[in-house]
Amino acid sequence: xxxxxxxxxxxxxxxxxxxxxxxxxxxxxxxxxxxxxxxxxxxxxxxxxxxxxxxxxxxxxxxxxxxxxxxxxxxxxxxx
Length: 80
Prior knowledge:
Layout: H1 2-16, E1 27-29, E2 32-39, E3 42-47, E4 50-53, H2 59-79
Antiparallel strand pairs: 1-2, 2-3, 3-4
């Protein structure tokens, strides 16, 4: 009986939990594709091994996070 109640409780809690949001989209910038994905508690955009966190889980915020990262890398490259 205890197992049945425990199972019923767990199923009811799982039914009330909202599903994880889907990634908004992928971004194509400068001829390259960048993926938007969820990593633990944060949304990130980038390519494997080179990512940047998004401010919000929207395509627009991920796009501007990516642009800022690429612009800062280009500025650092110009210093050399």
